[in-house]
């Protein structure tokens, strides 16, 4: 057989499917069970029919024949006694025998209605009984009582001969009925034996069918499915190089072929993704090294700029103090520009140093009472708060685990911004809120200042991004970027609440315990 012979159209494996195997198997089993059931039903019906014939016809026929004989014997006894004595008491058994005879004959005729031979025996008995009654019993029974009946003596020999013929007919009838009953009992025993054998054969066949069905299901369905499932589980556990083989019906083999095709694609994708992961790991390592180098560069550059910038600022300030008013106004203006630029450069470098330290250098995590942290920030900003007339309220703040120094920078920058960007027509009113959310806390810093347009919600957290000129609101544009870096370093998020329009509301989250595996928190001081 060629490979083409074993496959169906569309590349699917050829042969019988599970459905076809089950359909054929169930059909064959049903046919066998129906045949055996019909044969068993026939055997049971035959045994029941013979039993019914034996119980309803054979045995009652023999019993009523004996009753008929008893009734005739009673008649003969009564007639003989009455004929010898003439006493009427002897007629009572005779009359009762007549009634019993009629009952037994009627019952026998009913029972033997479909048996011509036994009905002929019955009619022979009835005919001989009528002859005996007509020739002997009837004349004696009608004779007057009180004295022996002469007819009894005269016809004694004839009456005896007639009753002997009647007895012989009854004996023949009973022998025939007994033979019929014996034959019925023998047939019943054979029918019951056949029924038992058939039922036993049905039980054996059912057991064999069950074994065959179980074995067929095991070999054709459950076994292949188990092996297929084992191969699939092996692949899901990571061994994508192991091939999936399927046996059994065509549809299971088709399923195995589909799984094997999927395994191959998965293996190819895993190999491709593994290669991509190695590339990403290499790029991530390069990026991490580049970030470290950039941070170190920023720190070193900022640190190394401090000394020459300090000299520039010092000498420009000396020039401003010593030569102010001695040169023309344009020279004084230039010196003032130089001194202001040097001062702002010092502030910018200090802010850059602080920004670069977040995530690179930090204290050990420790329990931090945010109430105390906020109190320290308010104390640092006491002069600005007093000059602006700001009112600051707050909820009861929790105790979290984190870097106390960086948390202080976070709160100080947020409160400082709320004070700095106040509305010119009203004193600042600032509220600090705290709400628990599962295993983290959500904090809000709300003010009634000039507010921030929601379209700048993302830009305000970008370093050096300013919404106002330095002349309107002084600063370096690093504050909110530093806040975002501190919050993310502690495993939280920070956003602008666009629904608050009467000022500005900054909302951020902090977990109760910062993530232990934060890749940034690798250097401590």
Please explain how this structure is put together.
The longest helix has 81 residues, at 156-236. With 525 residues, this protein is α+β, with helices and mostly antiparallel strands. Helix 10 (404-420) packs antiparallel against helix 11 (479-489). 67% of the residues lie in helices and 8% in strands. Mean pLDDT is 79; it is low at 1-11 and 517-525. The protein has helices at 18-85, 91-111, 116-142, 150-154, 156-236, 250-323, 329-357, 370-380, 382-388, 404-420, 479-489; strands at 366-369, 391-394, 399-402, 429-437, 440-447, 494-496, 504-511. A hairpin with a 7-residue loop joins strand 6 and strand 7 (504-511). The strands form 2 sheets. A 5-stranded mixed beta sheet has the order 2-4-5-7-6.
Please give a quick description of this structure.
This protein is an alpha+beta fold and 525 residues long.
Key descriptive features of the protein:
8% strand; 7 strands; 67% helix; 525 residues; alpha+beta; disordered N terminus; 5-stranded mixed beta sheet; two-stranded antiparallel sheet; disordered C terminus
